[in-house]
Amino acid sequence: MNDQFETLARRPDIDVATERYQKMQEDVRGRISAELGPVEWKVRRPLSRSGCAEFPDVSEAESRTLGLWYFTSNIPDDKWERAVKIISEINAAYGFGPPRHMENSPGRHEVISVDSLGASYTLGTSVHTTLMLHTGCHLEAKAHPANAGKKTP
């Protein structure tokens, strides 16, 4: 095995990682709606897949962009820090670092955070509010050593 494959083999496969990140997004949407809403989240752009430039020697590596979740209003300035606190609490439980403000001006806010596996999430608000998550690179389920001998999709 090469070093790149071994690195990816220590991570969950892409299907397991995707399921976990989707649960995290669900938790974020639920808390924001319950504590700052109610809001009606919608999804645009279903999940998309791409290769992994960081692991060029592993053809079975994949990263994903999960669906873009949004609602058609903004989070008011006076509630923004509460939204950041909510997302910080949830995402810390999933191994993400503290969010960094990419934009923080009246009526426009955006934070981003990453985890140790290269995933990143963005929560932003202006006219609309969006939540997006990109996974890091993971092995396809069929290539992951943990699934050896198992039937995978």
Q: In words, what does this structure look like?
A:
Its main location: membrane. It is found in: Cell membrane. One of its GO terms (cellular component) is plasma membrane. It comes from Allokutzneria albata (Kibdelosporangium albatum). There is one protein chain. The protein has one domain (3-144): TBP-like, CATH 3.30.2030.20. It has three helices and nine strands, in the order H-H-E-E-E-E-H-E-E-E-E-E. It has helices spanning 3-9, 14-36, 77-93, and strands at residues 42-44, 48-50, 61-65, 68-71, 100-105, 108-114, 120-125, 129-134, 138-139. Strands 1-4-8-7-6-5 form a six-stranded antiparallel beta sheet, covered by helices on one side. A three-stranded antiparallel beta sheet has the order 2-3-9. The chain starts with a helix and ends in a 14-residue tail after the last strand.
Brief synopsis:
InterPro entries: LppA/LppB/LprP (IPR032018). This protein is α+β, with helices and mostly antiparallel strands and 153 residues long.
